[in-house]
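Lab notebook, bench 4. Still working through the backlog of constructs that have no structural model yet. Next entry is a single chain of 99 residues. Request: give me the structure tokens for it.
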Amino acid sequence: MIVAFSISPAAGDETGGVSEAVAEAIRVVRASGLPNETNAMFTNIEGEWDEVMAVVKQAVEVVTAVSPRVGLVLKADIRPGYTGQLTAKVERIEQALAD
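Model written out:
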């Protein structure tokens, strides 16, 4: 499965920024060892249901440590029997664009 998620603390730093809290969440994802990527809006992670959701939970917990309220947006592509789709899906689109 691939999960795209975004975590945001309800309160930012003195400038209203949330990058430090979000960076802590991304550290959790990267330390998981699961295939992942981060873009301007979401972090994508690929793996089995239980391992992916455990990482998302841990990422939320580190943000909760600095904010009493946290927002989580999550979208999942659940396709049993398929792996490597984090890059394969993009490769298929790029191939279709090249045709």
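Notes after review: The radius of gyration is 15 Å. The chain has three helices and four strands. Flag for follow-up if needed.
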